[in-house]
TrEMBL record:
Annotated transmembrane regions: 9-32, 44-63, 75-95, 101-121, 133-151, 157-175, 196-217, 229-247, 259-278, 284-305, 317-334, 354-372
Name listed for the protein in its UniProt record: Helix-turn-helix transcriptional regulator
This protein's record includes keyword Nucleotide-binding: no
Family matches, as SUPFAM superfamilies: C-terminal effector domain of the bipartite response regulators
Annotated GO MF terms: DNA binding
Origin species: Adlercreutzia muris
Matches recorded under InterPro entries: Sig_transdc_resp-reg_C-effctor (IPR016032), Tscrpt_reg_LuxR_C (IPR000792), WH-like_DNA-bd_sf (IPR036388)
Pfam families: GerE
Any one GO biological process: regulation of DNA-templated transcription
Length: 520
């Protein structure tokens, strides 16, 4: 994986900060209230984004080649958003605008946004995992600061939205391309079967449900109160700063997930209770807290998706494009279009019971999800949370023989019911006599055979360790006790190991290693 240094890292951070700014609260009709043809531009823009990300997921292979080989074309597409806003403003100034014109320009804006996202998706997919965590957390803090731009005059807000995509695209363009060839990604849809659906499913429920809740209030006041926006920014910055410090200190993916999930879920609950309990303008403080928690959940979803891409070498465009639909486009459409319209059509106000009922339901739902989170996601987190050294092993570096030997020793030291030695294989941890000399063409020992198999299959150190324990005949339950892992985690690792080795059972693994020992 690529590691960014010095100015390149700063350039990536700045580019990602500005890539977040695309969906301002008022969006296009708020910038052009006098243009009736632009009144449905929000729906059109989100519809185009949805369609384009679906196209990207389907046409993932040629789009990845386009990003890798034609950086100038991608930059031009990213800069087209600036031209789109310019066309909207110019047409309004001369009085020549229409619905077809608005459709064309909103398509240009959506295409610009999708092109920008594709550029950063391909870049983050090839960056070291720890740096990806730092970039995501750090850019979210920068985005929180840029959110205060909503209090600029309409011209200033539009200029911020129009120039953000262009600035982000320029930052991406001036990043030096990776010196090593792109990994061989799997572009088959069947590769998604190994995705961490429990993790991503929980986050999708929280994001969509939370956007529905906040959407109930989106129609009540067109102006976002200063207190709400300030609280939202403070919540995002606080949680992300904590995660950023933790990541800089070497936190694993699992620690990064916990560090984000726990405070964000707590903020979500606090915000929901404040919305219900407080009356009048002060209730918007709770809304700001809830919004902040939702932004943290979104960052967490991207982190999980990129780790899955790097772990299983699945097409990043396919995974993240689908994720953008589920975690961004659909929730925003529900929040800003669907539910405000429902509230308006029904004539509901703050005093009506519907918002309180839905908010209370969300509090209960989040409580249940928080309680069930660890049990549902522990296995997937352990499988995804590999260290930087394990990344190197996945890229093809050799697995240290000491890893296999240590695995065998652990199995042997765990007790009489622990390591079940394979017939004909040397006992785990056994050592030859100090003055015994190996024959010139001696067969490898069982542990050495395990090391060779793991190295040739490109297993990580943790996978090699578990593979050795399985090959020595240990049950998955026993391995979970020896390594202090959840049983589900060991089962997940076993499936991954079997898939990489092209086998389907424990006995096939034992036969594979035994054949290597016997020289077959």
């Amino acid at each position: 994986m690529r590691t960014l240094r010095g100015g390149q890292f700063i350039l990536a951070m700045v580019g990602l900060v500005f890539s977040w700014v695309f969906f301002p609260p008022g969006m296009i009709p708020g910038f052009f209230p006098e243009a009736r043809a632009y009144s449905h531009a929000n729906e059109t823009l989100l519809g185009f984004c949805l369609a384009l990300f679906l196209v990207a997921a389907v046409a993932r292979r040629p789009l990845e080649r386009l990003v890798e080989r034609h950086r100038g074309v991608m930059l031009a597409l990213a800069l087209s958003g600036l031209a789109g806003y310019g066309l909207l403003t110019g047409a309004l100034a001369i009085g020549h605008y229409s619905l077809p014109f608005a459709l064309v320009v909103t398509f240009v804006l959506a295409a610009s946004y999708m092109a920008l996202m594709l550029c950063w998706i391909m870049t983050l997919a090839r960056i070291d995992t720890r740096q990806t965590m730092v970039l995501l957390f750090g850019s979210a803090i920068g985005y929180a600061a840029l959110t205060m731009g909503n209090f600029l005059p309409a011209e200033g807000r539009m200029a911020l939205c129009a120039t953000s995509a262009a600035l982000s695209g320029l930052c991406w363009f001036f990043l030096k391309p990776a010196a090593v060839p792109a990994p061989a990604y799997s572009h088959e849809a069947v590769a998604l079967r190994h995705a961490p659906f429990a993790l991503l499913g929980l986050l999708a429920v929280l994001l969509i449900g939370g956007r529905v809740v906040t959407g109930l209030y989106f129609n009540l006041d067109k102006e976002v109160p200063f207190g709400e926006l300030l609280v939202r920014c403070a919540c995002i910055a606080g949680v992300m700063a904590y995660c950023l410090v933790s990541a800089r200190r070497g936190a694993s993916l699992e620690q990064g997930y916990r560090n984000t999930w726990i405070p964000a879920a707590g903020l979500f609950l606090l915000g929901a209770m404040m919305i219900i309990g407080l009356q009048g303008p002060t209730s918007y403080l709770g809304l700001g807290i809830t919004h902040g928690a939702l932004n943290c959940f979104e960052v967490l979803a991207y982190l999980i998706m990129f780790r899955f891409v790097k772990n299983d070498r699945v097409s990043p465009v396919m995974v993240v494009s689908l994720g953008m639909i589920v975690f961004k486009v659909l929730p925003i459409a529900l929040q800003r279009l669907v539910f405000p319209q429902v509230i308006s059509d029904l004539g509901l106000t703050e005093g009506d019971v519907a918002p309180a009922v839905i908010l209370m339901s969300m509090v209960v739902l989040v409580s249940v999800l928080a309680f069930a989170n660890h049990r549902l996601t522990a296995a997937e987190l352990h499988a995804l949370a590999q260290s930087d050294e394990e990344e190197g092993a996945n890229a093809g570096s050799a697995v240290a023989p000491s890893t296999i030997a240590e695995a065998g020793t652990r199995g042997a030291m765990a007790g009489p019911a622990a390591a079940v030695a394979i017939q004909g294989a040397p006992a785990a941890g056994a050592e030859s006599s100090a003055d015994a000399k190996p024959a010139p063409h001696a067969h490898p020992s069982f542990d050495e055979a395990c090391t060779d198999v793991a190295r040739e299959a490109g297993l990580s150190e943790r996978e090699a360790e578990i593979m050795a324990l399985i090959a020595h005949g240990n049950s998955q339950k026993h391995i979970s006790e020896v390594l202090y892992l959840a049983l589900g985690t060991v089962q997940w690792y076993a499936k991954t190991i079997y898939r990489k080795l092209g086998i389907h059972s424990k006995q096939e693994l034992i036969n594979l290693v035994t054949d290597r020992v016997e020289g077959e």
